[in-house]
Amino acid sequence: MKKRLFLALLSGMLLIFVSACGSEAGTSNIKLAEVTRSIFYAPQYVAIEKGFFEEEGINIELQTAWGGDKTMTALLSDGADIALVGSETSIYVHAQGSKDTVINFAQLTQTDGTFLVAKEPKPDFKWTDLKGSIFLGQRIGGMPQMVGEYVLKQHNINPHADLDLIQNVDFGNIPGAFASGDAEYVQLFEPTASKFEKEGKGHIIASFGEESGHVPYTTFMTKESFLNDDPQTAKRFTKAVYKAQNWVQKNSAQDIADVIQPYFEDTKKDMLAASIERYKKQESFATDPILDKEEWNNLKNIMNEAGELPEDVPYGDLVNTQIAEEVIGN
């Protein structure tokens, strides 16, 4: 009897010891590079602040690269393990003959995140009102610019012939250039669009996200070698993202604003909530991490319309859905 009790206690102690060692060994430090700091990426900040990454044994080191080219440079040079950036960048890298293919494995946003802002109120706005106007656009080759041109063409507007199109302003300087310049219209992300409206510097009159449909606008991607060498970390990372996506869907814009406030200290909480609500309303936040084939084809159509598709890359070459499917299935 005493021997059996002793063995049972010993087995329990060994189980606790092994579990503790396994948890410690399973902890991964991930360098995550985001292309910019944006309310558009609210589920990512929720995953960090609500401890969903930590629950999966992942320590996140978040860095903001401020640009798609810089984000991809960080990823390809091992300055980052995972990047949050537009899916179009994986196509650009592939076209340049990268030896270590960049793979999209978890989607975060599924619409464009910009809004059409006008200097003057336009209560009866029609897209044809843009013809002949001065339009401050986004960086050539980036998703905002390509989606913008795609939407304009859907409304029979040739952006390069029917507009006085300005595209030589850096991303970070676009709001200031619009406020102080002659442009009549501009594409802006939140919360800048709502800030401009509140301050009387502009008026939100349309959404490019609503007009363009679903597209893999921002995804988590990594090098193929990372997925091959450490598939379990990629899976745990995706699981944390999926937890955050579910949490965002179930909670109010105000609750989300409360959680992500530390990432936007210069933005008042009511403005944060209003911006989040706008994105929730137009279904910008992906409800799961799967990037489907229809979205990928829509991305390529948009790039092709803008003359920026370097080659027709098949869906299966740059997209891995197996990880996300396993996470959702479990």
Automatic annotation (TrEMBL):
Subcellular compartments: Periplasm
Signal peptide range in chain numbering: 1-22
Assigned GO CC terms: periplasmic space
Keyword Signal found: yes
Transmembrane segments: none
UniProt KW Endoplasmic reticulum keyword: no
UniProt KW keywords: Signal
Pfam families: NMT1_2
UniProt superkingdom: Bacteria
Coarse class of the protein's main subcellular location: periplasm
Family statement drawn from the similarity comment of this UniProt entry: Belongs to the bacterial solute-binding protein SsuA/TauA family.
Protein name: Binding protein YtlA
Organism listed in the record: Lentibacillus kapialis
